[in-house]
Amino acid sequence: MSEEFLTKIFPNGLTLLGQKKDDVSSAAMTLLVNCGSVYDPSALAGSSSVAAEWLFRGAGDRDSRALNDAMDALGCQHDINARSAHLQMSAALLGRNFSEALDIYADILLRPRLEDETFGPSRDLVVQDLASLEDEPARKCNIMLREKFFPYPLARCSYGCEETLAAMTPAAVRNHIQAHLVPDGVILAVAGKFDWDAICEQVENRLGGWARQAPQRPALTPQAGGVTHIQKDSSQTHIALAYKSVVCRDEDYYPARIAEAVLSRGMGSRLFTEVREKRGLCYHVSASYTALKDYAGIFVYAGTRPDIAQQTLDVTVSELRRLAEGIEAEEITRAKTQLRSSLIMQGESTSARAGTMASDWYHLGHLRSMEDLSQKLQAVTEQEIMDYLRQYPAENFTILTIGPEPLDTSKIEQAGGEVA
Amino acid sequence: MEFKQAQLDNGLKIIAEVNPSAATMAAGFFVRTGSRDETPNVAGVSHFLEHMVFKGTPRRSALQVNLAFDEMGANYNAFTSEENTVYFASVLPEFQADCLDLLGDILRPSLREEDFNMEKGVILEEIAMYEDQPHFRLYDNLMTQHFGPHPLGNVILGTSDSITAMLRDDMKAYFDSRYSPTNVTLVGVGNLDFDALVDQAESLCGSWQKFDANRTAEQTAGTGSKGLIVDPKLARQNIGLMCPAPSGQAEKRFAAQLLATVLGDTTGSRLFYALIETAIADEAQVSYSPMDGAGVFMTSVSTGPERTGEVLKIIDDVFQQFLEEGPTESELQAAKNKIASHATLRGEMPMGRLTSVGFDWVYRQEYVPLEKQIDELFKVTAADLLALAKECNITGGTLLTLGPLEKLPE
User: Fold this and answer.
1) Any CB–CB contact under 8 A between A334 and chain B?
2) What is the DSSP letter of A412?
3) How many CB atoms lie within 10 A of CB A155?
4) In angstroms, what CA-CA distances link B35 with A21, B38, B41, B249, B295?
5) What is the pLDDT of residues A323-372, one digit of tens each?
6) pTM score, two decimals?
7) Which residues pair with B303 in a beta bridge?
8) Residue of B21, B92, B342 lying closest to A341 (CB–CB)
9) Do B73 and A74 touch (CB under 8 A)?
10) Cα distance between residue A302 and residue A173, in whole Å
11) Given an 8 Å threshold on Cβ–Cβ distance, is A345 in contact with B351?
């Protein structure tokens, strides 16, 4: 696992990160731009998702079709999504085609066309994404839970709502995008087969002159929290709940990840064993650590038939709480082995490496080698895990359910009012 | 990268693509059985059995199986399709022996009554879960409608009724008729010791008794029928079209992969420009599924119910135009580059290579290195794609829509 990181911070605030892997022929990139859904003005909620569609509809000398065809001709797999803080763009292709793809991205950042005639379809796709969510209750449940758990509008549904989407004008969204497509805080991470000096030069030439002011973050309101039930005649009752955890830069991050693994990593984990294997209450049950920069939580989801949904919720919550009563040494050993192995497996994927580098830089302000991360995880003691669990107990849940009947949550203490 | 192969006396085949520079290894037992090998009274048994394989053996309880995988930090799972059931794990090379011991052991499950009854609940949950996901419902129902009485129309999960009624002994009988070592291939990829793999397979699987477990793979062109499932609870209309495609054995499978990409990849394809760029639909895709002696192209689209007629007309126009002109050279080149990139990226991880190496063997008893696969892909011509599109009659085929729409547009 010998890893060498390459870092270059440009005067305009753009950070370029690299990790070379010489035994592969691919190169992958993650690009984070400060134009996530948190910056959407209330009246323009959903504009970051519209931006994700609109930005690829022509840039520089290429119209929409030419841009798409150029990416396809390079065999470039690409994706763009509106996250909380960022528009996240990712691309993966053969290393020998990387610099051509980077040129296209430079155009998208600096010279997006954002034309009136391509606005309508971009917006309409988001309108349809929002409508499709009604047919996918599991996905909707998790999106709505995030919105309620984090201080608003940090995790607002990035599709916005019907009213804001309907009222949007090309000019308003264009102004919003142009104000937020700024180099300050941009993170560009590249992993795989590439020539670092050539990339530095290309970024300098293409993006070095990019200079605009960083936008202000909107003020946050406390989390909504509480219990929400959405009535739906679905086949399953979808149960999602979340409670507070530590942020990535916290010292307790490592014990938190071990605790999460004991709870939900692998089929021998607590939740899988108790809820699914011993009781047959569901097919899917999981808990996962989810972090924004300044807030984090453990997010739990279970899908279950309505007649056993109450039991599923009760057993799940009792398992979350039982963790703080003690963890066996073998459980900790297993969790550590799983995390070490999973890090090595991630290291084999250039896309995963690029994503992790960008995320580490954003959350921590520095890069963390897999070896360093692995060692820190291995060093965690049982005491540290128990201390973490006492400090961040499975309490003050934010709960969201979708299904035919609401569940009884009276026995579960609820959150409300306070910032997560 | 080196290819190795061996066979046990009972017929179980062992193949591996060994790559000493990889950081991990992946191994899988590929069992040639799935829903097409079921009779109606045990609909869903292949998949239910896949779950039961993790429920223990004479040596291990269900919990011990799960814990053993977790103890080696394995990334592991299994899947069941119409015609394959695959059990796989990816581990660090130091766990090769532990991983094989476990996989080899669970392939002869105890099928304990108590575990069987508990797992039934999980399967019923899984069926309910997919009922809340329209694109899975569309796929299942379209396969059934397209294949009609042909066994490829059997639904993988079965139904709530067939699962509820199923007995443990029914499953045991199915196991005894399908899990012959002659129907099993052990596949390894990555940083592994092949000789050790064979020795261990011999001691774990050498005593498995072989028996006749063949499958008659009858050809079918599909029903070509039109159907409508009305579900007023849905907001969107899900449209599916299915037509025949080259089988898993056919040489034309590379052309088929390219044809699906040109017509309906999620970016830059004909349907993308006609339906997604115009925002007439929010999803539109053509996928290619090669199977044993059969194959299908499936076109799936999600749109507003009121636009169903318009969408069907557009798909027909797009396909019709393709039949008149075939792909442009740049379209073809882009499709080749996309598929080659995708295969290369997947191939950089042993876990990503496992199914390619495994299925090349299961379907054609051949090993195709990634480079050769890409070479073959690049040999396909525009004329090949056009000929294939005509042969498969892409504008015909079976149609199913699922959503609030109460009647098919004229």
Assistant:
1) yes
2) S
3) 25
4) 42, 5, 12, 19, 15
5) 999 999 999 999 999 999 999 999 999 999 999 999 999 999 999 999 99
6) 0.95
7) B237, B281
8) B92
9) no
10) 37
11) yes
Give which of B50, B94, B132, B370 to mutate to test A binding, by max A Cβ within 10 Å. Answer: B132
**Residues of B with active-site annotation:** 50
CA-based nearest residue to B224, from B398, B34, B352:
B398
**Nearest CA among A23, A291, A343 for reference residue B22:** A23
- How long is chain B? 410
Q: A136-191 pLDDT, tens per residue?
A: 999 999 999 999 999 999 999 999 999 999 999 999 999 999 999 999 999 999 99
Measured over the CA atoms of residue A235, residue A236, residue A237 and residue A239, the dihedral's sign is negative
Cis omega (within 30 of 0) for bond into A153:
yes
Distance between CA atoms of residues A316 and A275, nearest Å: 7
Three-state DSSP at A354 gives helix
ipTM value: 0.94
φ, ψ at A298 (rounded to 5°): -100, 120
Cα angle A231-A235-A238, degrees, rounded to a multiple of 5: 60
pLDDT at B262 over 80: yes
- Residue A64, amino acid: S
Q: How far is CA A12 from CA A16, A29, A60, A203, A213, in A?
A: 12, 20, 21, 12, 10
| pLDDT of amino acid A413 | 65
Best A336, A341, A370 residue to mutate vs chain B (most B CBs within 10 Å): A341
Residue of A nearest to B62 (CA): A277
Residue B273: its chain A contacts at CB < 8 A? 65
Asked if B67's CB is within 8 angstroms of A334's CB, the reply is yes
Per-residue pLDDT at A241? 98
One-letter amino acid for residue B47 of the chain = H
